[in-house]
Amino acid sequence: MRINDLVNDCKVENTSKLEQFKKNNKTTRIGIMGGTFNPIHYAHLATAEFIRDKYGLDKILFIPSGNPPHKPEDITNKYDRYNMVLLATVNNKDFLVLDLEVNRNVRTYTVDTLRQLKKIYKNIEIYFITGADAICDIEQWKDVQENFKLATFIAATRPGISVLKAQEKIEQLIKKYNAKILSVYVPSLDISSTYIRNQLRENKSVRYLVPESVEKYIYENKLYDMEMSR
Ligand SMILES: Nc1ncnc2c1ncn2[C@@H]1O[C@H](COP(=O)(O)OP(=O)(O)OP(=O)(O)O)[C@@H](O)[C@H]1O
Ligand SMILES: O=C(O)c1ccc[n+]([C@@H]2O[C@H](COP(=O)([O-])O)[C@@H](O)[C@H]2O)c1
């Protein structure tokens, strides 16, 4: 079966998970995993699952960026990135995917997404998950103060990022903005989407770095300038 045909089944399954979630009137603690996901890899999934479990979050909402302000204009098509996130999360009942950002045709900022989420889901407490690298740059984000009012941030350690430097920055942010930021050690993998794109461009293996369905989607749709088809 072609993987592109499976994407539709994933969309149906995800819509049904979202409808169930919307019906829930109780206060729900949700984790938001935002990212460019170009492509999604196992470190994203492992980080999200570790944090869901550690903080007893009810669900993790993956929100692929549409037109992220901080990445080059020519990144992979947003619907391909979104489809790969759907494929990667379909088997986990607690992982849901939202298309809020891919459907926005202007630049996508987190503050707009958080405001929108609070409107759609009345009783949610939001925990925004970021790598420690992203939290260090948060003062460059749009409406930084407002972001901190709308969500608690969880800064996950990431290989290659100095924990001490990140901790210093987090303490400054907490003081300056009265922010709620939890810093957490996550046993993780030293991989990035950049590394995976480079492997693909050099025609090297990405097996066990991304879910098999994502790997197939990449090959079937000839993403990332691959030289030969598999
Ligand atoms: N290996 C990792 N361990 C922990 N967190 C990660 C890891 N890779 C990415 N993240 C976090 O996941 C979120 C989404 O990341 P993103 O989609 O930019 O992936 P990336 O691998 O950093 O991509 P790129 O290499 O293209 O910059 C960010 O908050 C990022 O810090
Ligand atoms: O809102 C902003 O100004 C902003 C600027 C840079 C990054 N972000 C968000 O940070 C998250 C991680 O970004 P990324 O793509 O670097 O992994 C993702 O949800 C982005 O939308 C948000």
TrEMBL record:
Q: Which GO terms describe its molecular function?
A: ATP binding; nicotinate-nucleotide adenylyltransferase activity
Q: Which domain of life is it from?
A: Bacteria
UniProt pathway = Cofactor biosynthesis; NAD(+) biosynthesis; deamido-NAD(+) from nicotinate D-ribonucleotide: step 1/1
List the keywords (alphabetical). Answer: ATP-binding, NAD, Nucleotide-binding, Nucleotidyltransferase, Pyridine nucleotide biosynthesis, Transferase
Instruction: List, alphabetically, the Pfam families matched.
Output: CTP_transf_like
Q: Per its UniProt record, what InterPro entries does this chain match? A: Cyt_trans-like, NadD/NMNAT, Rossmann-like_a/b/a_fold
Q: Transferase among the record's keywords?
A: yes
Q: Which GO terms describe its biological process?
A: NAD+ biosynthetic process
EC number per UniProt: 2.7.7.18
Sorted alphabetically, which SUPFAM superfamilies does this protein's record hold? Answer: Nucleotidylyl transferase
Purpose? Catalyzes the reversible adenylation of nicotinate mononucleotide (NaMN) to nicotinic acid adenine dinucleotide (NaAD).
Q: What is this protein called?
A: Probable nicotinate-nucleotide adenylyltransferase
Q: Which organism is it from?
A: Romboutsia maritimum
Q: Quick one: which gene encodes this?
A: nadD
